[in-house]
Structures are given as structure tokens and as C-alpha cells.
Amino acid sequence: MSELKLNTNGIRYIALFEQTTGASPIDCIINENQNRVTFIVKSEEMGAAIGRHGEHVGRLRTTINKQIEIIEYSENPQEFIKNLLQPVAVKKINIIEKNDKHIAYIEVAAREKGLAIGREGQKIEKVKSIVKRHHDIDNVIIQ
């Protein structure tokens, strides 16, 4: 994983997340266009991050007035990509190196391809930026 850089808002949201949930996120990604904040959390802290019946997520959503997304981190890039694509069922992931670039080829059911890509490609772009940030994978291709 490369060194992560956070802006002032990212640091502020992480502090608020820790205070509200008791969990320490690994990363915070702010998407102003979608009015969404995504937190990356270790698997052992997912329960604390979400809270009973989603109460922590609800409290955060109300406090910062943005949609909240919590994603489980994994050291294994394939598992992490599966977590990023939830609820899409991933059949297979191949990560290859080509011309000094790492490319993840992801196989999903034909009927779930649109869900994996997202409206106007927003979901796949989010996946690409997060796996680049955490696992140095240069491109993600849905098959």
C-alpha cells in the first residue's frame, strides 16, 4: 500500500468517525459530486463501524449530511475488489502485469455488469481509484 494523503476534511471526517464508532478507518474518500463519504475499515472493526442496526452510520449521515459507505479492507487485492463491488457477485478476478502496469480483470454475471459499472461508470471509477490507492493496481476491467 502506498502512502495515503488526506485533506483537511478527510482528517476531520476520520476523527468524527472514530469518535462516533470507536473504530479507526484506514482511509476516507470524499466524493462531493455524489455527496458521499467512503470509509475503508479493517475487517475486525466492521461491526463497531456500522453499529447495532446501523446506528453509527445513521448518526454519521445526519452529522455530516452526506451518504456514508463503509468498505471492509483486505490485504488480498482480489478480496478487497470483491468488497468494493458489493453487492455484485464476482465470479473470478485475475490480476496480471502488462507493460509494468497491474490490471485486474473481473468476471461478473452478464445481468450484473451494469450494477458493477454503475450509472455513468461511477462505481467502476470509484473501484479503480481505491484499488490504485491501496494496492497499486492501475486499471480494472469488468468482463
Q: Radius of gyration, Cα only, in angstroms? A: 15 Å
Mind telling me the CATH class of the largest domain? Alpha Beta
N-to-C terminal Cα separation, in Å?
Answer: 26 Å
Beta-strand content bin: 25-35%
What can you see in these coordinates?
- There is one protein chain.
- By secondary structure, this protein is of the alpha/beta class.
- The protein has two domains: 8-72, GMP Synthetase, Chain A, domain 3 (2-Layer Sandwich), CATH 3.30.300.20; 77-142, GMP Synthetase, Chain A, domain 3, CATH 3.30.300.20.
- The chain is built from six helices and six strands.
- It has helices at 8-21, 46-50, 55-64, 77-85, 113-117, 122-135, and strands spanning 27-31, 36-41, 67-72, 90-98, 101-108, 139-142.
- It has a three-stranded mixed β-sheet, sandwiched between helices.
- β1 and β2 form a beta hairpin.
- The protein is globular.
- The protein starts with 7 loop residues before the first helix and ends with a strand.
- The mean pLDDT is 93.
